[in-house]
Amino acid sequence: MKTKKLFKDNPYLVKTEAQITEVINSEGKTAVTFDQTVFFPEGGGQPWDLGTVTLRGPEAKVYNILKVIESDGDILHVLDTDDDIPLGTECLLEIDWERRFDNMQRHTGEHIFTGVFDRDFGGTNRGFHMGDDYMTIDISLEDRAKVDKLTWDMVLEAELKSNEIIYQDLPMIVRHFNSFEEASKEPMRKPLSVEEDITLVGFGSTDYDWACVACCGTHLKSTAQVGLIKAFKLESNKGMYRIYFEAGRRAFIRYQQEMETLHTLGRKLSAGTEDILSKYDAQAEKNHEKSFQFSQLKKEVISRECSRICDNLAVGMYDGIIPCERYNILSLDDLTQLGRALSPSVKKVFFLVHEPSCTALLVSDGKINCGRLVKENAGIYNGKGGGNDILARAIFTKTEYVDTFMDLIEKHLR
Ligand SMILES: [Zn+2]
Description:
Layout: E1 4-5, H1 6-9, E2 15-26, E3 29-34, E4 36-37, E5 51-55, E6 62-71, E7 74-79, E8 90-95, H2 97-121, E9 123-130, E10 135-141, H3 152-167, E11 172-177, H4 180-184, E12 198-203, E13 213-214, E14 229-237, E15 240-247, H5 249-268, H6 276-314, E16 324-327, H7 332-342, E17 350-354, E18 359-363, H8 370-377, E19 384-387, E20 391-395, H9 399-413
Parallel strand pairs: 1-4, 16-17
Antiparallel strand pairs: 2-3, 2-8, 3-7, 5-6, 5-8, 6-7, 9-10, 10-15, 11-12, 12-13, 14-15, 17-18, 18-20, 19-20
Helix pairs in contact: 2-3, 6-7
Zinc ion (ZN) binds next to helix 2.
C-alpha cells in the first residue's frame, strides 16, 4: 500500500496519527514509511519538511526527521536514530510548521512572480532555486516573448504587479488529474512533463494560462498569505535573466534589515531617506576635491624637498656624514617619486628613509647600481628588497638595522 499524502489535499495539516508500514536502514539511519503522512518530500524546488515522529506506547520515544524522500510513490522518513522500530507501531507525526509555512510562502510567491513575467513579458521560467539566503528564477525570452530584453525597471514593474495579485487575495486553485489527456486540455503556461498523478496549480481563475502550471509542491490557500514579494538583483545568466528575490516573511525581514542599514547610513550623513543620495553625492564631491588638493600638496612638498636636498648637495652639506633624510608623513611611493627627481643630482648614493616601515630607499645617478647594493648587503641585517640602477628599496625589521645598513654601504663606497 502506497503512503497516503495528506499534504496534497490539506497542506495546513500539521499532525496526524500513522502506522509504520516498512522499516529500512538508510546510510546507517532508520528510515520508515507510514500508511499516511503529513511530511512533504523534496519536490518542485521546495525542500522537504522537518519535524518529529513520536512512537505511541509505554516508551513514547520521540525522533527527529532528518530527510523525507519520495520513492516509487512511497514516502521514506529518515530518522535521527538507528533504533530497530517494529512494523505496525502507531506514531504521531508532527511537522515543523514554521518551516513549512515559510516554504509555502516562498514557493507560492514564486508561482505569482513567474506568472507575471509570463503574462506581461512572455518570459518563460527555466530554473527555480530556493536557497537559504534568497530565491532565484531564470527567465528566458523565447519565441513567444513580448519584449527583446529584460531591464531592472521591468523587474520592478513585475514585482509591483505581483504584489497587486497578493492584495487581490486570489484563491490558489489546486486540481488533481488522473489522466494526462484530461490535464493537458487545461490552459497552462508550460507543457506537461509528467504522465500521471498530475496536479495543476493556479490562482485567480483556471482560465489564466499564465497563472497555471503542473506542480507537486505545497501551496497557500490564497495569494494574500504570501504577504510580500521583493526583487533584489537582476543579472544575465547563460542567455537568460536571473532574478534574485524573496517572498513572505523573509521578504519583510530583509526589507526591515535593509531599511535599518539605510537609516544608519542616513544618521551618519545627517540625512533622511529622501535626501540621502544627494547628501552622499555632495560628500563624494567634497572627498574628490580634498583628494585632488591632497595630491597637489604632496607634489608641491616632493618638489620642494627635491630642491632643498639638491641645494644641500651643491654646498656639500652631507660631506663627511651619511647622506640621508628621514620621513614619517610621506609614503614610500612619495619617496620613490622624490628619489626619481633627485637621482640626476646624486653623487654615489643618497638615502631616503621611510621610518614607519623601516625602509631605506637608495638613490643614485645610475653610476652605482642601487639594486645590486641592496641585493648583496641587505640580507646581512635580515633585510630584503631590490630595485634598479637608480632606485632600490631595502626593508628591515628594526630601525637600528636601517642605520647599520646605511653605515655599511657608506663605508663600502668611501
Ligand atoms: Zn507549486
